[in-house]
Amino acid sequence: MRFAAMRLAELRLRFTDEEGTSLTEFALSASVLFMSLFGIFALCGALYSYVFVAEASREATRYAIVRGSSCTGFSDCGIDQAGLNSYVQKMGFPGISKGNLSASASWPSGHDRGDPVSVTVSYSFPLAIPFWPKSGRVLQISSTSSMAISQ
What we know:
Strand order of the largest sheet: 1-2-3
Number of domains: 1
Strand content: 15-25%
Largest sheet: 3 strands, antiparallel
Order of helices and strands: HHHEEE
Number of helices: 3
């Protein structure tokens, strides 16, 4: 009987011992911390991409307004949709994948001086957040800029 009581007391001490709890708590809290940290990094990358897309749409619109149908002095006067898309894809910003970048332009009134041109640049930003569901991991970013053709 005395041996059984000692064994029971030993088992009770073993199960009430808190020797591994701090390691378990750290593992749980560190996974949440790192997921949040990498999520913030990914969203900062998305914000950087949005700044690029906004700048690219303004630059592409400026490029299109000086290359209207009455343009002189440039080798690519009378710019079209394909030429504008290749111009945007040649912009060299680090961290931007050219394959995920596209530009579309519209000339509602024509290519003459004073007519408006509107350029929309779109970018598919791949989100990489650990422990996040795989569906919806691409963030669509776009920006539109409009100006009047000057040449």
